[in-house]
Specification:
The protein is globular. The chain has two domains: about 1-155, Glucose Oxidase, domain 1 (3-Layer(bba) Sandwich), CATH 3.50.30.20; about 155-370, Rossmann fold, CATH 3.40.50. It is of the alpha/beta class and about 375 residues long. The longest helix has 12 residues, at about 250-260. The strands form four sheets. The chain has a ten-stranded mixed β-sheet, sandwiched between helices. Strands 1-2-8-6-4-3-9 form a seven-stranded mixed barrel. The chain has ten helices and 21 strands. α7 (about 220-230) packs parallel to α8 (about 250-260) and α8 packs across α9.
């Protein structure tokens, strides 16, 4: 391990120890309260452009493996942990977290007070930061941070989306046999727009009997509409993804065209936000976002409280009730977590019903989408 210097936009300058990739990186710092699943978090494309502070103090102790990858790589800028364990002990481990981070060029920062950082983010809000194993002068780091574009100015979708169409053929992970099931026979077919989709979202879609054709984020809406008119597909899924949805002007136009064609649609996280924007209701940024596996969400129809996994900094406005019925509400701050649009076969949720990591109490939502198709 070597020294790494950190500078935050509120003027804080810290020194810590480095593992993973070396170099200099700029991004937005957030915190995640999940107690398990650090590999799934690191490989979630929605974290592109961000540094993730783990509130769980011990990270790295179970290593990493190919089965727990949520995408083809790791897209976050870096992770901050209190204590990194470089000697994993787990029968499923194939490599250390350090090796995985180096493979994908992601910085690891340890021996730092993550409780202090979490309180700082809660009080001041998510902010930009710079970390470097090369530069240790505070003023130089400040200059580089001031000159760097903010996360709200960068479109990360092109980086995390698939470059070519493919059919997802995997099912749910079976913890008894330690393997992914083969997708069951499909009775419905959909196109899934990949804005940075997680592997286990696709697994849950196939599990309920949906054939999933994953397409790049720049796939023309006209192509999808034509397939729907021919009866080749039954609906569209809009995936999770990174960054500020308000800068995705081309994606917004495609979603608006799909809405005009009356195609059944389901969105998760960024997809949920894009549907709101396409309906004319712009999203807003939360102070420090929702990131973790322990967020209580109330199902407005059943009255049940579900513990959910979440990862987002942006939210849809209360005014969405003009065109949609609110189906789920976050009990931490009463923000909207799910909607069903009025007079349209369109639904969406802000949280992650697939979990991974996290509880699976919201997995029924995929079945609801299947029944809507």
């Amino acid at each position: 391990m070597q020294k790494v210097s950190l500078y935050f936009e509120n003027g804080l300058f810290l020194e810590a120890r480095s593992f993973g990739a070396e170099g200099t990186a700029v991004g937005e710092i957030v915190f995640n309260t999940s107690m398990t699943g650090y590999q799934e978090i690191v490989t979630d494309p929605s974290y592109a452009g961000q540094f993730v502070t783990f509130t769980m103090p011990e990270i790295g102790n179970v290593g990493c493996n190919a089965q727990d990858m949520e995408s083809r790589g790791a897209f976050c800028k870096g992770i901050l942990v209190r204590s990194y364990q470089g000697r994993p002990s787990n029968f499923r481990s194939e490599e250390s977290l350090d090796a995985l981070l180096k493979r994908f060029g992601v910085m690891g920062i340890c021996e730092i007070d993550t409780r202090y950082l979490t309180r700082m983010i809660r009080n001041r809000g998510a902010m930009e930061m710079i970390a470097s194993t090369e530069i240790h002068d505070k003023e130089e780091l400040k200059k580089l941070l001031d000159e760097a574009p903010r996360i709200e100015e960068i479109n990360y979708i092109d980086e995390v989306s698939t470059s070519e169409l493919y059919i997802h053929e995997e099912g749910r992970y079976d913890a008894r046999t330690f393997r992914y099931e083969k997708a069951p026979e499909a009775k419905k077919h959909i196109v899934a727009y990949d804005f940075g989709v997680k592997r286990n979202i696709l697994n849950e879609l196939t599990h309920v009997g949906i054939r999933v054709q994953v397409v790049p984020n720049d796939t023309p809406a006209e192509t999808v509409i034509e397939a729907y008119k021919k009866g080749e597909i039954d609906g569209v899924f809009l995936s999770n993804g990174p960054g500020d949805p308000l800068i995705l002007t081309e994606e917004k136009k495609r979603v608006q065209k799909l809405l005009d064609a009356k195609i059944p649609m389901f969105g998760i996280c960024l997809g949920h936000q894009m549907l709101s924007i396409a309906h004319g209701f712009d999203t807003y940024k939360l102070k420090f976002g929702h990131h973790g596996g322990n967020h209580p969400v109330k199902n407005q129809k059943s009255g049940a409280v579900e513990i959910t996994a979440q990862n987002h900094n942006y939210n849809v406005p209360d005014a969405i009730t003009e065109v949609a019925e609110v189906t789920h509400v976050n009990l931490f701050d009463n923000t909207i977590e799910g909607v069903k649009y009025k007079d349209e076969p369109v639904m969406s949720v802000q949280h992650h019903p697939e979990a991974s990591p996290g509880p699976h109490e919201s997995a029924y939502i995929f079945k609801t989408f299947y029944e809507m198709l």
